[in-house]
Amino acid sequence: MTHPLSLLTAAPLLVPLLETPDLLLRAPLATDLPEFTALANDPAFYRFLGNKPQTEEEVWRRMLGQLGHWAMFGYGAWSIEEKATGRYCGSVGFFDFQRDLTPSLKGTLEAGWTIAPRLHGRGYATQAIQAALDWITPRFPAERITCIIDPDNIASLAVARKFGFSEFARATYHNAPIVLLERPR
């Protein structure tokens, strides 16, 4: 049965396809839902992302939001597919979530990335972020790029530093501490 929202054909029109040595960065597809939902219920995956699992409905809304960014802003998130297996393994991209956060990130390109725990340590986050930054930088050259990372997520903080992100503030977001980082233009 085909999906009634026809994301399998519509999404690729909005989202550019990017490629790295090991990954395809592509539009989120309806067929990603089972794998993404499984990841969102893996404690090793969600421990730095709100520290609670997500239902299939919550994951679905997240995927729709990823595509909605492309339609509204001309940027958004890519689903990451491992070339060797063809499996969905995370996402990378840029957002404007209108977070209720002080200091505010509103109006910035907020970078974000997630990789399946089974693939940590392979350099996939580095490949995905590099490809995303290579795509966004010439299209939005004057925009400030920010990100937020759980202070205990040492690996993600190290990846952010690798790409020139530096801490500019600490805050509380959803009753938990968060590090706010920015990348110079």
Automatic annotation (TrEMBL):
Pfam families for the chain: Acetyltransf_3 (PF13302)
An MF annotation (GO) of this entry: acyltransferase activity, transferring groups other than amino-acyl groups
The organism of origin for this protein: Hymenobacter rigui
Domain N-acetyltransferase: 23-185
SUPFAM superfamilies referenced in this protein's UniProt entry, alphabetically: Acyl-CoA N-acyltransferases (Nat)
Record protein name field: N-acetyltransferase
UniProt keyword list: Transferase
InterPro entries: Acyl_CoA_acyltransferase, GNAT_dom, N-acetyltransferase
